[in-house]
Amino acid sequence: MGFFDSQVAWVTGAGRGIGRAAALALADQGAAVAIVSRTQSEVDQVAHEINARGGKSIATLLDVSNWDMVEWAAQQIEHTLGPVDILINNAGVLDPLGKLWATDPEQWGRLIDINLSGAYYCMRAVLPGMLRRGHGVIVNISSGAAASATPGWSAYAASKAGLEHLTRCLVVDLKDAPVRAYALRPGLIDTRMQEVLRSTTDDQLPPERRQFFIDQKVAGKVASPDVPARAIVWLCSPQCDLDNGAVLDLRAQPETIEKINRVLKA
Questions:
Q1: Catalytic-labelled residue, pool 120, 121, 156, 182
Q2: Domain 8-188+224-263, what fold?
């Protein structure tokens, strides 16, 4: 028996990286998983992996920045798998990188549309049903960038700071409703975003910041996506003991990783 038998999870940005690892981990704990991203071949592959392991999943092409598409996707998920019990808002982009006054306004706004508005749209789509049924968990994937000001990261950092505060605002709105929501800062994870950060130009990030990411990779301090995926499983499980609305920073709270590993018997 898994933590999420008979439950439905919806993971955005699930074609690769943290989203893919989270989808697989939730499926291993019994959840039927709706896998969405903007690349059909990637979500198809993840769904195939889950189904081949005896799980249940569907793959859907989705741009989370489009409310009509999000609303349609939520309806399709409920029709095919059932109402959503778990939402993982993982979809996100990194560009534009560069000094604020040198970035492309359209690209800057597009990032906010995906990273922040997209998370809102998905929460807006599932929360009425969660509240009617009296249960639900939402995990919003944030970043350490939400708490630090680094040259060249204005759009990404602002989107993640906004996402964390949006999580807090949701919990205030929920009051005593039996729905939980958390933000997760995964730390340095071996994803395509990290590859991009290690190959930035001086116009995008200061050289010393790029070198930091290179040095962390060389030192073996860039973790597998399985690490935040296990944290996501724990946050969604009945074993989670964090206050509703909490921000879990895996890099700053290694003791929580130890707790997660004990609970999941790593």
A1: 156
A2: Rossmann fold (3.40.50)
